[in-house]
Amino acid sequence: MCDICGVTPCDCRCPNATQKAVYICTECGEPICEDDWYWDSDDGPICERCMGEMNREQILYLCGQPLKKAEWEIEWRN
Predict the structure, then answer these.
(1) Which residues neighbour 39 within 8 Å (Cβ) at sequence distance 6 or greater?
(2) Contact 67, 77 (CB under 8 A)
(3) What is the radius of gyration, based on Cα positions, of the chain?
(4) Other beta carbons within 10 Å of 67
(5) For residue 24, what is the enclosing H or E element?
(6) So what's the pLDDT on residue 19?
(7) Contact yes or no for 10/18 (Cβ under 8 A)
(8) Among 64, 38, 41, which residue's Cα sits nearest to residue 52?
(9) What's the superkingdom here (predicted)?
(10) Is 29 within 8 Å of 49 (Cβ atoms)?
């Protein structure tokens, strides 16, 4: 068992790890290891932890669908 991460084999986030990260999260810069859940956004992979910390508005923005403000539309007639 590793003295740093406490796992065998080491987690890819551990400095003693031989396994490399599959991706790097574009939000926090942390490694995304094999079997980790992530979102493959247009801007790059985002780890599950970062996704869980985002509110709905942030997620919609990342999807290219920001919230819209409701406004009356004036229809002009001749």
Answers:
(1) 45, 46, 51
(2) no
(3) 20
(4) 9
(5) strand 23-24
(6) 81
(7) yes
(8) 38
(9) Bacteria
(10) no
